[in-house]
UniProtKB/TrEMBL annotation:
Name of the gene encoding the protein in the UniProt record: mtnP
Site feature location: Important for substrate specificity: 171, 226
Classification of source organism: Bacteria, Bacillati, Cyanobacteriota, Cyanophyceae, Nodosilineales
Source species: Halomicronema hongdechloris C2206
Name of the protein in its database record: S-methyl-5'-thioadenosine phosphorylase
UniProt keyword annotation of Transferase present: yes
Residues engaged in binding phosphate: 13, 55-56, 88-89, 190
Length: 291
């Protein structure tokens, strides 16, 4: 394959509309799990090949429950991605985490109901370690990049728990208070399946959570208008572009070692010599180091 990229970004389509991105091409890939959400945009940023995928499609046509998570991560693996950054809009569950802030979570809570979050099955069983669901090395580079930019109106929150809910409706007030009682920092609808699949694909993964508003627990929530949220989304997208450029610069200069890069070494329980050939073929991209 001629197109290769060591760094991947999954987020809104606006993230790859940055002037510093050059030598751009669209790559349409197929996977054993169907097509990804959209064509992947591959370009050069800070001298490094980078792959961008619009998570919901470039026209935002896919609901969270409809996202082809396995295809998205498999496509990134096909391109040679070793570090994957998720840019995601979230609601805040803490007073101190205000709109326009950025959170780099280190934990997730799964509240999804209808998501396939593993590549395995059909005769091959694997159990990845997931106690630390985010790569701490990559999260550290991302957080350092955010801090170094000193973005106006943005406070960095390094660490915190992301509640991943099913959607597409937002939380009830009772759910929002429950998540707060758990000590969670933000709530969103997409990142946990990505994190699980990235770990199975031996890709380091970290989340840049972009706060658009307080979740419905907040007394002032009723005063939040659609226009305010859209305004925050636009500001967040502009800030995220700067963060991505700085993070890519830092990763290119000093790519960190990640335990994620060998996550399957002891995870596959099924003796591969006795596994179904069709399944080994389907998973060959993930298992090639171990076959």
């Amino acid at each position: 394959m001629t197109q290769q990229a060591s760094i991947g970004i999954i987020g809104g389509s606006g993230l790859y509309q940055m002037q510093a991105l050059t030598d751009i091409s669209e790559v349409r890939l197929d996977t054993p799990f169907g097509p990804p959400s959209d064509a992947i945009i591959v370009g050069t940023l800070e001298g490094t090949r980078v792959a961008f995928l619009a998570r919901h499609g470039r026209n935002h046509t896919l609901m969270p429950s409809e996202l082809p998570f396995r295809a998205n991560i498999h496509a990134m693996k096909q391109l040679g991605v070793r570090y994957l950054i998720s840019a995601s809009a979230v609601g805040s569950l803490k007073e101190a985490v205000k709109p326009l802030d950025m959170v780099v979570p280190d934990q997730f809570i799964d509240r999804t109901k209808n998501r396939v979050s593993t590549f395995f099955g059909e005769g091959i069983v694997a159990h990845i370690g997931f106690g630390d669901p985010v790569c701490p090395a990559l999260a550290g580079v991302l957080a350092d990049a955010i801090a170094s930019l000193e973005l106006p109106e943005v406070t960095l929150h390094q660490g915190g728990t992301y509640v991943c809910m099913e959607g597409p409706a937002f939380s009830t007030r009772a759910e929002s208070h429950l998540y707060r009682s758990w000590g969670a920092a933000v709530v969103g609808m997409t990142n946990l399946p990505e994190a699980k699949l990235a770990r199975e694909a031996e890709i380091a993964y970290a989340t840049m959570a972009l706060v658009t508003d307080y979740d419905c627990w907040h007394d002032g929530h009723d005063s939040v208008t659609v226009e305010m949220v859209i305004g925050n989304l636009k500001k967040n997208a502009a800030n995220a572009q700067q963060v991505i450029q700085e993070t890519v610069r830092r990763l290119a200069a000093n790519p960190p070692e990640s335990e994620a890069h060998s996550a399957l070494k002891f995870a596959v329980i099924t003796p591969l010599a006795k596994a179904p050939e069709a399944t080994k073929t389907k998973l060959s991209l993930l298992l090639q180091k171990y076959l």
